[in-house]
User: Which sequence fits this backbone?
């Protein structure tokens, strides 16, 4: 599995200046390459390399491999749209490969090429990222952000062998409780809902100032504030999603179960238009797709089978008698057998049942896990 390790570099002031000079020079070369590609309508890597390699090397004094990486960056930039000339930021990220970057995981240093030669720079990344570096393979992006330096390293982490399971842990994703499993355990409920409402109110207040008849400086400052608020919210939601996904996967792994999730692709487009205006921000403000991605990759790393099931009627069907009932908010009532329970728990029980009953091809991972191949 391909994962990214985020490593923070700790350069001296001199090393930091060398990195900045190298980054700026490389992006200047990228803009020159973009100009040549645009004028000659040459957007293929081989063709652009043949056309621009020697002129760029002579003009900018970069190493051979750095020029190759700059050409690759420009070609990637034109892959999405060849109708617009690309201009790259002066301090945009530049990819390094194994010829111009290496890691020493014992000494925790990165040997990186700069305009003045190789620099051995110490790094920190936390236990998780440093463990990932053991599987580093391919490119690493050198990133400069607010005076700090990072390396985003591509790591090819081997998957754990899928273990044998006896049952499925169903997980229902919701608005009040972000996740509820088929055991009835809830994850990030009322406190997170209060947080989301508070942040929504703050955004609305700031947005109102932006939309009012204000000076250009006020509008500019408001945009900056909205950007900071958005970044803070993304960071918080990412941390919470990591925590929930980790707990779910550990629970499934320790109990010898697989995980079943609903396929909620496009649900926001279907549900948000039907909601009142005050409800829309709450339904749209949480990255549920990110949570599903985190559960998926953590499950794969842990060897926990994961199945995605259709969402139709999982929240309206009684898990006891399989008849359609009535759901109102967090409450579910079955009109057939009289079963009363938490609606999300009922949905999770149904998701688990559907996940365990799906017929899979005989060569699939989940089939082998359920049938002890």
Assistant:
């Amino acid at each position: 599995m391909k994962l990214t390790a985020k490593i923070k570099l700790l350069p001296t002031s001199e090393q930091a200046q060398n990195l900045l000079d190298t980054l700026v020079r490389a992006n200047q070369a990228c803009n020159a390459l973009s100009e040549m590609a645009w004028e000659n309508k040459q957007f293929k890597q081989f063709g652009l390399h043949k056309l621009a390699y020697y002129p760029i090397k002579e003009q900018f004094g970069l190493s051979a491999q750095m020029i190759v990486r700059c050409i690759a960056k420009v070609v990637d930039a034109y892959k999405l749209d060849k109708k617009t000339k690309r201009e790259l930021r002066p301090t945009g990220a530049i990819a390094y490969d194994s010829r111009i970057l290496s890691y020493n995981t014992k000494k925790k240093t990165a040997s990186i090429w700069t305009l003045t030669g190789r620099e051995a720079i110490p790094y920190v990344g936390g236990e998780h990222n440093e463990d990932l570096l053991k599987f580093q393979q391919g490119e690493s992006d050198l990133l400069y952000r607010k005076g700090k330096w990072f390396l985003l390293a591509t790591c090819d982490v081997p998957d754990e062998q899928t273990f044998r399971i006896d049952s499925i842990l169903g997980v229902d994703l919701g608005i009040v409780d972000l996740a509820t499993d088929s055991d009835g355990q809830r994850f990030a409920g009322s406190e997170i809902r209060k947080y989301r409402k508070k942040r929504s109110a703050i955004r609305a207040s700031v947005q109102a100032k932006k939309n009012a008849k204000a000076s250009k400086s006020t509008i500019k400052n408001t945009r900056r504030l909205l950007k900071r608020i958005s970044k803070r919210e993304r960071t918080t939601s990412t941390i919470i999603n990591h925590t929930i996904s980790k707990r779910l996967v550990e629970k499934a792994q320790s109990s010898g179960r697989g995980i079943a999730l609903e396929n909620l692709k496009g649900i926001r487009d279907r549900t948000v238009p039907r909601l009142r205006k005050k409800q829309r921000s709450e339904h749209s403000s949480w990255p549920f797709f990110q949570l599903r991605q985190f559960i998926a990759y953590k499950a794969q790393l842990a060897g926990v089978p994961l199945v995605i099931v259709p969402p139709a009627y999982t929240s309206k069907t009684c898990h006891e008698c399989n008849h359609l009932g009535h759901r109102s908010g967090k409450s579910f009532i079955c009109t057939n057998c009289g079963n009363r329970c938490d609606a999300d728990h009922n949905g999770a029980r149904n998701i688990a049942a559907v996940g365990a009953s799906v017929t899979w091809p005989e060569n699939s991972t989940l089939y082998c896990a359920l049938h002890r191949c």
